[in-house]
Design goal:
single chain; 235 residues; alpha+beta; Glutaredoxin; five-stranded mixed sheet; two-stranded antiparallel sheet; 10 helices; 7 strands; 12% strand
Length: 235
């Protein structure tokens, strides 16, 4: 489980306006090539959130369309909040999710929703590029970035050239890459998704899952999902 980085802003993520200020700062940092990755601009309180949340509240539309796989009528809805630079998130998506998808999503038992919860500026940039990849390409691009996370998220120096290599494979040009990463509204929308997760649902680490509203944090195994889903499918 990847916890949110501590920073002197303390509880400022309770305030939406402060969240958007930080988002603007992230855009400015990127444009200036001064990422400040050692002290991420995206910070969050450590206060633990509720273990159960209202499904109705959880499913209210946000500023961005949900990234959804599976049958809308599935008896189980899983919402994941993830960061593109989170190692535990990458482990889940590369080692657990393929089997979970085959066993539950593809068979109509689970609807899976992924939402952005960037832990740092680089994660925010990767999420922006995934959204800019276009409908039908966002989730495949996310899968590639998780599978190759070590090749772009943890390189020495400026990570943008490595990220650009993967973006070009998804059809980006240098121009469209830079245009996406300077899209302030998109960054604001991603920040708003993150701020609501923190303020309303108490998300304070990644990955965090909500299974029909019940919170599951950390890096759950397939066995843990099997147990969680089993009781719901029997009822």
């Amino acid at each position: 489980m990847t916890d949110l980085p501590s920073a002197p802003w303390g509880d400022h993520w309770r305030n939406r306006r402060e969240a958007l200020k930080l988002a603007a700062g992230a855009a400015a940092l990127f444009a200036a090539a001064a990422w400040g990755l050692a002290q991420p601009a995206l910070a969050q309180r450590k206060k633990a959130g509720p273990t159960d949340v209202s499904v109705e509240e959880l499913m209210k539309p946000g500023p961005l369309p949900d990234l959804v796989l599976g049958n809308a009528e599935a008896p189980i809805t899983v919402v994941e909040y993830a960061s593109m630079t989170c190692g535990h998130c990458a482990n889940f998506h590369t080692k657990v999710f393929p089997t979970l998808k085959e066993k539950y999503v593809d068979t109509g038992k689970v609807r899976f929703i992924m939402r952005e919860f960037p832990l740092d500026n680089l994660a925010a940039a990767a999420s922006m590029l995934a959204r800019c990849a276009g409908e039908g390409n966002t989730l495949p691009f996310i899968s590639v970035l998780f599978a190759k996370q070590d090749d772009w998220a943890f390189v020495k120096g400026d990570p943008r050239p490595e990220l650009l290599k993967f973006a070009k494979q998804a059809g980006f040009t240098q121009e469209s890459f830079e245009k996406c990463l300077t899209d302030q509204k998109l960054l604001d929308d991603i920040s708003a998704v993150r701020a609501r997760a923190a303020d309303t649902f108490g998300v304070n680490s990644t990955p965090t899952f909500f299974i029909n509203g019940k919170k599951m944090s950390g890096g759950p195994t397939l066995d843990e999902f099997d147990k969680a889903f089993g009781s719901l499918l029997k009822s």
